[in-house]
Write a structure and sequence with these properties.
The complex is a heterotrimer. Chain A is 33% helix and 25% strand. Chain A is α+β, with helices and mostly antiparallel strands. Chain A has a single domain, classed as 3-Layer(aba) Sandwich (Peroxisomal Thiolase, Chain A, domain 1). Chain A is globular, with a radius of gyration of 17 Å. By secondary structure, chain B is mainly alpha-helical. Chain B contains four helices and no strands. By secondary structure, chain C is α/β, with parallel strands linked by helices. Chain C has two domains: 233 residues, 3-Layer(aba) Sandwich (Peroxisomal Thiolase, Chain A, domain 1), CATH 3.40.47; 154 residues, Peroxisomal Thiolase, Chain A, domain 1 (3-Layer(aba) Sandwich), CATH 3.40.47.10. A ten-stranded mixed β-sheet of chain C has the order 4-3-5-7-1-8-14-13-9-10, with helices on both faces. The chains are: A alpha+beta, B mainly alpha, C alpha/beta. Chain B: Keywords: Phosphopantetheine, Phosphoprotein.
Chain lengths: 212, 85, 398
């Protein structure tokens, strides 16, 4: 059964892009303000969001754009949805902030985010995902590796859908590209799941034809 | 007591990143955990940090947390009773 | 997928010994490795007990012929991985060999030294002390030492890391992608983890009491544990004597909280159940469970609830060995995999030190003494990590 990319999202340069369309952009204020305002722009009430670290917030926002208030993930059994995320800076952004707090009193709320895979945990908690999951630390976005690993995960019978992509942050520098791949074929607009396609979506802000 | 509770509400919102709330949204006797504000175990630890940083009160045993952190009023009472002189 | 995955060799270093045989001797003598911090400075030095590997860095460098800039995580890893390869008798250079190592702190110990000078003066501090910081670097150093040039990977899923490393290694062999995999993990004690876990208020100021009603936290430990996994073909060609194999494993996601396990232990229950299903065994077939048993209120209650749900009244011998070693985080699954293999090889089970009173909610009574001449055919080992990452693995004797 062919795999189709049915949804994709991008967060870069303080701009949220869903299926190639700008959903929100916020140049004013701090980067943290941008993240919090983005949640409001997506019209989501989820108080725990404000407690997350930047990587988890970015992964959360990217996934929310994929779901877009639909039952696309909750329609599957929890164990049938997989999650594959990679980044370049592990949890360094939070490691640094946590280190700052150790000068006075170490912050427990920050310490719990000093692991790169917590972004996966937050997305799983939000959407009840209990399938295969993996978080890779790579030198840079690698469409080929992402494609190969996701293809492998999707090759198992139990996995019906997979949220995958790139969630990287260090300071204000951020780069998010997430997509949903599904086995179902009835999606007319699904894109073929190839490394070339992923590279194109990543480079072109998530627009298929290159417009941003 | 009233002033202390007002201060506490501001400090709790700040320390726990409760950005969806304003001080007046938190009732003096409202439950903070589970049913009430929905705080969790990590929040309880941040409240312990808060007591130490703002009031110089050291809570050695986290198991005492649930009793002390029931509501803003119980925290205020605990602070008044345990303030270092 | 075809064939079996055999455990051809084991290697371990922890607070209770720097080899598999020394470890077994410590278990026999019921000698705990928990004590004061001696290898680094900390405000918690005489307050928080830990499970330190007795050898300081200088001694490790000396024994292993490594330079002073090599991180403690890498040194401990080399020590255990060399023992594992040696005990297997397998010529790893002859086969398609991989190394999968788990760690959570990587080169943190050296970085912490570097930082102090560097923060005062950007020109101070030696860069060679931070180049090995990254978790993956410790795996590369171990691979270089062993001469492994094929598949090299690092896994960090917090405290379940090493079991996931062994599971991945087993899968690579089953799928015919590799012939030999050295899998396990290594973690050194560091200020980072000590202060971090202390901020979570889950460190006991006394030696820890896993699965006891009076438990009040864990003791951090350090060490490394590796197994050498081989295919049927390698086992035959190299004349491997070991009769232990990896029989089943599973990794589940609790999807409950960043650090806490769900009270009903749904992730841990699922991991045990799925590992049993893969091995084709029934819960009653397990002769010994090496519990995750950290000694925190949350873990032991959640894990105990899951075990009670799986077994009801009649449960096998079980113990947490963390009262001996402390919680070695990313290395714990590798170290406890070695313990599991020792139990199968020597037909023995290990005591759950300092146990007195069962946890009232679950009422489980763990193994209290070192017992030999026990029939041990199947051992299950649990490792559960932050992020709700729960893993169980089953080793069997054929």
């Amino acid at each position: 059964m062919a795999l189709g990319i049915t949804r994709y999202s991008r967060i870069k340069d303080r701009t949220l892009v869903r299926q190639g369309e700008v959903v929100h952009t916020g140049a004013d204020g701090s980067f943290d303000d941008f993240l919090d305002n983005a949640l409001k722009a997506l019209n989501i009430a989820y108080p725990k969001f404000y407690k997350m670290d930047r990587a988890a917030k970015l992964g959360f926002l990217g996934t929310e754009m994929l779901v877009n208030n639909t039952a696309v993930l909750s329609g599957y059994e929890p164990a049938r949805v997989a999650l594959v995320v990679a980044n370049a800076h592990a949890s360094l952004d939070t490691d640094i902030r946590y280190f700052e707090t150790t000068k006075t009193m170490a912050s427990p709320a920050l310490f719990v985010y000093t692991l790169p895979n917590i972004v996966i945990g937050e997305i799983c908690i939000r959407h009840g995902i209990k399938g295969e999951n993996a978080c890779f630390v790579l030198p840079a976005f690698d469409a080929q590796q992402l494609h190969d690993y996701v293809t492998m995960v999707m090759a198992t019978e139990k996995t019906q859908a997979c949220v995958a992509g790139w969630v990287d942050v260090l300071g204000d520098q951020h780069d998010v590209f997430l997509y949903l791949v599904e086995k179902k074929q009835q999606h007319i607009n699904a894109l073929e799941h190839t490394a070339e396609q992923l590279q194109k979506l990543y480079e072109h802000y998530g627009t298929v034809d290159g417009r941003s | 007591m009233e002033q202390l509770m007002a201060d506490l509400k501001k400090q709790i919102i700040e320390a726990l990143n409760l950005k969806h709330l304003k001080p007046e949204d938190i009732g003096d006797d409202q439950a903070l955990f589970v049913e009430g504000l929905g705080l969790d175990s990590i929040d309880a630890l941040e409240l312990i940090v808060l007591l130490q940083q703002h009031y110089n009160i050291k809570l050695a045993n986290p198991q005492d947390g649930p009793q002390i952190f029931k509501s803003v009023r119980t925290i205020a009472e605990y602070i008044q009773a345990n303030k270092p002189s | 997928m075809k064939g079996s995955v055999h455990v051809a060799g084991i290697g371990v270093i922890s607070a209770i010994g720097s080899s598999a045989s020394a470890t077994l001797a410590a278990f026999r003598e019921q000698e705990s490795g928990i004590g004061h911090i001696t290898h680094f400075d900390s405000v918690h030095k005489n307050v928080l007990p830990v499970g330190e590997v007795k050898l300081p860095n200088e001694a490790l460098c000396d024994i292993l012929w490594q330079g002073a800039h090599v991180t403690r995580t890498a040194l401990l890893g080399i020590h255990a991985a060399r023992e594992a390869v040696k005990s297997s008798g397998v010529d790893v250079k002859r086969w398609r060999t991989g190394l999968i190592s788990a760690t959570t702190v990587g080169g943190m110990d050296k970085t912490e030294h570097f930082f102090i000078d560097y923060l005062n003066n950007p020109n101070a501090g030696k860069l060679r002390n931070v180049v090995n910081h990254e978790c993956g670097k410790s795996t590369e150093i171990i691979a270089d030492d062993l001469g492994v040039k094929g598949f090299i990977s690092t896994i960090n899923t917090a405290c379940s890391s090493s079991v996931n490393a062994i599971a991945l290694g087993s899968r690579l062999i089953k799928h015919g992608l590799l012939d030999v995999v050295i899998a396990g993990g290594s973690d050194a004690l560091s200020k980072f983890t000590l202060n971090g876990f202390n901020s979570l208020m889950i460190l006991d100021q006394q030696p820890c009491r896993p699965f006891d009603a009076s438990r009040s936290g864990l003791n951090l430990g350090e060490g490394a544990g590796f197994v050498v996994l081989v295919s049927d073909e390698v086992r035959q060609a190299e004349g491997v004597a070991s009769r232990v194999l990896v029989n089943g494993y599973a990794n589940t996601n609790d999807a409950y909280h960043q650090t806490a396990s769900s009270p009903e232990g749904r992730g841990s229950f699922g991991a045990m159940q799925k590992a049993l299903a893969m091995s084709g065994l029934l819960p009653q077939d397990i002769d010994y469970i090496n519990l995750h048993g950290t000694g925190t209120l949350n873990n032991d209650l959640s894990e105990g609830t899951a075990v009670a749900r799986l077994y009801g009244e009649k449960y096998p011998r079980m113990s947490s060995t963390k009262a001996f070693t402390g919680h070695t985080l990313g290395a714990s699954g590798g170290i406890e995999a070695v313990f599991s293999v020792l139990a199968l090889q020597h037909q023995c089970v290990f005591p759950n030190l300092r146990f007195e009173t069962p946890i009232p909610e679950v009422g489980l009574v763990p193994q209290r003494t070192f017992e030999e001449n026990v029939s041990v055919k199947h051992v299950m080992s649990n490792s559960f990590g932050f992020g709700g990452n729960c893993s169980s693995i089953i080793f069997s004797r054929n």
